[in-house]
Fold:
Amino acid sequence: MKRISHNDIIGEKLLTLFIDETPVDVEQLQSAIEDKQVELIIALAHKIKGSSRNLGADKLAKACSEIEVLAKDNQLAELLAQQSKLTTSFNQFNSKIKTYISNLKTN
Structure:
């Protein structure tokens, strides 16, 4: 979030967009993992990784990167173990975003 902290208006828009769209992507990624849809796993993990990195969600980006690599290596059993890491990282960052936006609106 440091990358966008210098411009509150743009920052709020980007973070709101992330909050609105990323939960759907995370759910789709989790379903793709459960259904072993390798190409979809790779695409969604890559998408979430990019947006996460742009906003400074390093743990979430790392979790997605690991999922992407495992899918490319066809290590499907290992992907199931990564789901909890993905969920935890996403929930933590999502909470930080909501707090950040709330603070912007009160200041």
